[in-house]
Amino acid sequence: MIDKLLAIVAQTLVSAVSRLVSARQAESPMSLSFPTFGTLLVGQALRLRRALRPAPRDLNNTRTARPGVARRPWICPTKTKWHWAVGLRHGVWGIVAFILPASVAYGASGYVGSKVCAGCHMNVYRTFSKTDMGRSLSLASNSEPAARVKQSVVVHNEKLDRYFDVHKASDGIYQSEYQLNADGSDAFRNTQKLAYAIGSGRNGTGYLVERGGFLFEAPLSYYSRTGAWAMSPGFEEADVGFNRPVLEGCVACHSGLAEPVPPGVGEYRNPPFKQMAIGCENCHGPGALHVAERSHQAPVHGGSDRSIVNPAKLDPWLADNICMKCHQGTALRILQPGKSYHDFRPGTPLNETMAIFAAPLGRDEANVSPLLEHFTLMSLSKCYIAMKGRMSCLTCHDPHVQPEANTVEYFRNKCLTCHVEASCKLPLSTRQSQSPSNDCAGCHMPKRSVTIIAHSVLTDHRIVKTKDQPFPTALFNSSKPLQSGLIHLNAVPGRIDRIPALTLFRAFAELAPKDAAYRPNYLQSLDEVARTDADNPEVLSALAWMHLADGPRHDETKAFDELSRAVAGGTTRAADYEKLADLLSKSARRSEAISVLEKGIKLAPSEERLYKKLSLIYISDRQYGKALETMRGTVQLFPEDGFMRELLRKAEQGSAISGR
Fold this sequence. Notes:
The protein has 26 helices and 19 strands. It has 660 residues and is α+β, with helices and mostly antiparallel strands.
């Protein structure tokens, strides 16, 4: 009877899984939904098996009393004993044998989500969920600053002459941008619902708007240090409204598992996050294999479970690579050819996914910002140098726990794992008289203000003897490999450092506009990739703009050909679409110009310049109705643009007079 029931259950589950796989193969392979479903399916099948079968027998076929089994909820599979072998006879593992290949067919990445991990590691899950990383992303309405908003909070940006507010409504929390006329009426008002809160709130909380499948930054953030709302970083100087796209490289370090739509210019699947906050698998890697092996009680060979990455058992440098992915953020982070931010897997060298570069500092500019430069600053510490590769981020940090009460004592005890009380030459009475007392990190790793982000401070991770201790010579004469004048921070030790030409080109393409000294390096790297990666849209775009510039290489015919190929290849630069449309329009090929602009707008709907150019080409082509329609759409998306508002007003007046 039991066998028949289990057979029916297995058949039903297999049918359900088959439908899921066939219906969802086209979705992202990095999905939580199906692996989570599969894992829970196994658990529930096992629970059903335990509930239906009689009490198990021991190895001698003697009945073993197990009261209450049928009423127990599913728990960690590894905590059940040998009697799972009995389940094999009834086909439970037949279900497992189907689910695992189906999971591979659905997506080889094998992510299952932190809640599945919590089935066995509940205590770790609970403590991690309280850390800054475990609270890195949430629904906007669930954020602490949102909960404090009782009435509208207004911020006036005098430089921009714009007002911004944050307010609550019955269905969520909103932000508005508006401008006032002389009589106090609204010149315009743009109100957007906030979808997500980004940041733990340690220094502050930013907000994201979801619109048309794209994510955008909101102009106001909450700053914990001042306890007030103010302009988000970068919004102080320019009015970009609600149209700054959230790119893949940003959100990859603030979320557990984002779902960007290639080519990664701000568009996301629905929902945009399979897991919102940073979770277990960001540091331990995909967990599907681990769940399957532990559920099956597969033997562990060599005393180490190789089905999951344990950073504590990695080589310290390799463990630090996991942290460097996000905590070495203000240096140049350049994706390797063909890679995305989600291709990195803990336990592998980060350099296989992205190269991290820094420019050597002059002795008169040795003021490294503490903003996400944790690894570089740590590596310049005497402690780190003296440990000769045995010190890592994990020496002082347990990512699963963030002490809140007794923080000073917690980190002092970390110091005392290598040092002794007598190591400090400052008298104990002096140390105890300070506030907080006897604070090792307070003296040797002081907090510093972050100039890039207002109202924020971060711990300087260079461990110093005194606060005025100069930087070591290593900062100026780096022992790390140099690539055309750049320090390759995450070069793999012991390997010949070979950087792809396209990677170096991308690095200098970011540096050259900011520092003319890198212009020769940029041009040299461009000549190299023109030979090695001639069909790459980034390369074609760069060649085109070089040929459009005044000088000995000016050649508009070549530029037209290169821009055409770049657009056909999917360039992500809005300027490429705008310029190609301009060249086509000048050649009286306006219908082609319109198609190019429509393609660019579909790729990057937040680029106002494309809408303006499209309006002008419609006017040139005497398509006045479409021009007016485009202008109205532009003002609706970018109401903060006073020039477009006035242009639309005049166009509508003219249209009314002419009767069009």
